[in-house]
Design brief:
With 321 residues, the protein is of the alpha+beta class. It folds into three domains: 3-190, no CATH class; 199-260, no CATH class; 269-321, no CATH class. It contains 13 helices and ten strands. The strands form four sheets. The chain has a three-stranded antiparallel β-sheet, covered by helices on one side. Strands 3-5-4 form a three-stranded antiparallel β-sheet. α8 (201-211) packs antiparallel against α12 (244-260) and α11 crosses α12. The chain binds iron/sulfur cluster (2 copies). One iron/sulfur cluster binds next to loops.
Length: 321
């Protein structure tokens, strides 16, 4: 199944401008055996957490903010920074290291202080998860690559296991499943091609809120304007209010509806027309503002300075300004 993608990787190491990249340029399937073990007595203990570059999935954010007992907004502010995942500004978040350093804020001498809720990238290491999708397909395909960094001595340990066994040991299946909707959105946007152009800033903001700032998204979902637009059964709404995981799943459905017009939600009768009406009113207000500014600029251009013949009293061309 991976053959066609493997072809795309052929020669990548030879021609790559990143020849020192630790990612071994080969597509691996789950039954591939690797040599690896990480334990407290390795000489490189905590080396991987001392210099981090970790992208978080929406489910990572959910798990960590709940573990810490803080809101998604507080978590994002204190522990992450935003970045653009592609040239169209698709928003992603990465871990913010300690102030003035490169180590993870959760690293302690004993290892990881949030081990049970550590992000998926930390669980996978030293495997990299690759999600691939052809432009004519909706479902993504999964493959793996091996990351062999010089400082990581776990590759010299005498233990051999398949990638599938390693995934199961690290508990990534649940994480992969709960981030699948997000990965598909990311892939779909990336493979949409240049034809649709750069999405408006508002759609990136919506993507950010729905994927990462879950508590703010919840407030949006229970708002009057949302409920005037979408027909969500009462029982489902109760679940969304009470259950973060259900809310996150719903966030992906919602984004498919608004970003890709997939009709995955039911809109209330007249909601589309009401939205168009609001947009028309807003567009008209912007047009009126533009016209009145333009008239003012024109008036000021031809008005004499205050107190001189031709001064209309508008204050334009006041030499004291
Ligand atoms: S979350 Fe834990 S495992 Fe991941 S980088 Fe931080 S300390 Fe290391
Ligand atoms: S063996 Fe690798 S994964 Fe384990 S602590 Fe060392 S650098 Fe980190």
């Amino acid at each position: 199944m991976l053959d066609q993608y493997d072809q795309q990787f052929k020669g990548i190491g030879k021609d790559s401008p990143f020849q020192d990249s630790p990612v071994v340029p080969s597509m691996l399937e789950g039954d591939k055996t690797i040599q690896f073990r990480c334990h407290r007595d390795v000489k490189c203990w905590n080396a991987c957490c001392s210099n981090i570059d970790i992208t978080l999935t929406p489910y990572d954010v959910l798990r960590l903010k709940n573990r810490l007992g803080i809101s998604s907004g507080e978590f994002l502010k204190q522990y992450t920074f935003p970045y653009e995942m592609d040239k169209d500004g698709m928003p992603g978040v990465k871990f913010n290291p300690i102030e003035g350093g490169s180590a993870c804020q959760f690293m302690v001498p004993e290892g990881c202080s949030v081990y049970e809720d550590r992000p998926n990238a930390c669980r996978y290491y030293p495997i990299a998860l690759l999600s691939l999708r052809n432009s004519d397909e909706y479902v993504d395909r999964t493959a793996y690559a091996l990351v062999q960094e010089k400082h990581c001595l776990g590759h010299q340990e005498n233990r051999f296991l398949t990638i599938d066994d390693y995934r199961s040991e690290q508990g990534v299946a649940d994480y992969d499943e709960k981030s699948r909707g997000w990965r598909q959105l990311v892939l779909k946007r990336k493979s949409a091609g240049p034809g649709i152009g750069r999405p408006p800033a508002a759609s990136n903001q919506l993507f950010f809120m729905a994927c990462y700032d879950l508590d703010r998204f919840r407030a949006f979902v229970i708002s009057e304007s949302f409920n005037n637009t979408y027909d969500i059964p009462v029982e489902q709404m109760a679940e969304l209010v009470a259950d973060d995981e259900k809310l996150l799943e719903f966030a992906f459905t919602f984004l498919r509806h608004v970003l890709f017009n997939e009709k995955s939600l039911v809109e209330k009768d007249g909601a589309y027309e009401a939205r168009m009406e609001r947009l028309k009113t807003k567009a008209e207000a912007i047009r009126q503002e533009y016209l009145s500014n333009r008239d003012k600029i024109e008036d000021e251009k031809y008005c004499a300075p205050p107190g001189q013949p031709g001064d209309c009293g508008c204050g334009g061309n006041d030499e004291r300004q």
